[in-house]
Design goal:
Chains A, B: Pfam families: TetR_C_13_2, TetR_N. The structure is a homodimer. By secondary structure, the first copy, chain A, is an all-alpha fold. Chain A starts with a helix and ends in a 5-residue tail after the last helix. Chain A binds a DNA duplex through helix 3.
Chain lengths: 185, 185
DNA sequence: GTCTATACAGAGATAGAC
DNA sequence: GTCTATCTCTGTATAGAC
């Protein structure tokens, strides 16, 4: 079965949003990338907003699921968090979800922002749950989980600003050294 | 002496870029905000790119200077870093410089990106220098300085995503607890 | 469901008068 | 140096045939 127009449109939009953001991506761009005709786009998605919502929701869900997979497993809790932090990333591309927070049109739209917010709260909750397994109390685990997620997002910013993936790795290294304590530092 | 057109244009552009980013801000927006006429804009800045360069450079320089001021002083080195991290910030607005890294047009432009990169490398160097005063070796200080800068940038992302300034403060709290060690944690 | 053609606003810039 | 008028291209969407 050939992929249908609707699916191709959403997948093309996801890719373009990851590269250029939502505001900078036009319906025409999506049409060209998907190979679908103009009539089809506006049949499936009456407005650009409808398409954006579908694409952002799909990206947020996929990304959160991947992270959840990594944070679960048999390894020791702290090791799983460190493995999550140190996982290879497309540093120069940036986070497909996090970058959207710089797009004012996304933040100003309740529907789009809810998808982005859901990704981050879901990810933070997951990390916090793993940290609590280490014996940390709930409040400290939440602060520390937010720091874990923030260090990745901030590392992306540094890497993109300097066009040097090493800055993401370096920031993570500095953080992990603090996280694992004097024993490993 | 009344502020001249050129200055008013740059200041208006700085404000608009902080709110909407570079790509999303049109020359017309800048004209309206500055109260200057169209002829003047294109007299002082032949293209939008010229104006963007002037405005981004000004913002990067101002922001870096402000940070330097905070990181110098008589307090103990680690206290100065913590004070820098914990300083009140416009969490929902985001970093005026860092947010630009999500704008592909900025990253793809060597001139604009150089201004953004200069801000971050300057800031990181400053933090690293202060951390070395604590006795940390150069490599560890650099990793840790990058983590400090990244935690702020990442905290902004979380705060904007959830529209809740508390997430920036919480991420910083989690990081500072690790940074100041068991003594304060 | 999909196609082509068309509409209309705004972005970015130029022209030429003052 | 500053003004108004104008130009072209693209973003976003609609119309109506197939």
């Amino acid at each position: 079965m050939v992929t249908d127009s609707r699916t191709r449109l959403v997948e093309a939009a996801q890719q373009l949003f990851a590269q250029q953001g939502v505001s900078a991506t036009s319906p025409r761009d999506v049409l060209a990338a998907s190979g679908v005709g103009q009539g089809s786009l506006y049949h499936h998605f009456p407005t650009k907003h409808d398409l954006a919502l579908a694409a952002v929701a799909a990206t947020a869900a996929e990304t959160l699921e991947a992270a959840r997979g990594r944070l679960q497993g048999d390894a020791a809790p702290l090791d799983r968090v460190v493995a999550y932090l140190e996982r290879p990333r497309d540093a120069l591309g940036g986070c497909r979800v996090g970058r959207l927070t710089a797009d004012q049109a996304v933040v100003d739209d309740d529907g789009l922002r809810a998808e982005v917010a859901g990704y981050f709260t879901g990810l933070i909750d997951e990390v916090a749950a793993v940290l609590r397994e280490t014996g940390l109390d709930a409040d400290a685990a939440l602060d520390r989980a937010r720091a874990c997620v923030a260090i990745i997002q901030g590392g992306y910013v540094l890497a993109r600003a300097t066009q040097d993936p090493e800055l993401l790795r370096s920031a993570v290294r500095g953080f992990v050294a603090l996280l694992t304590g004097p024993a490993t530092a």
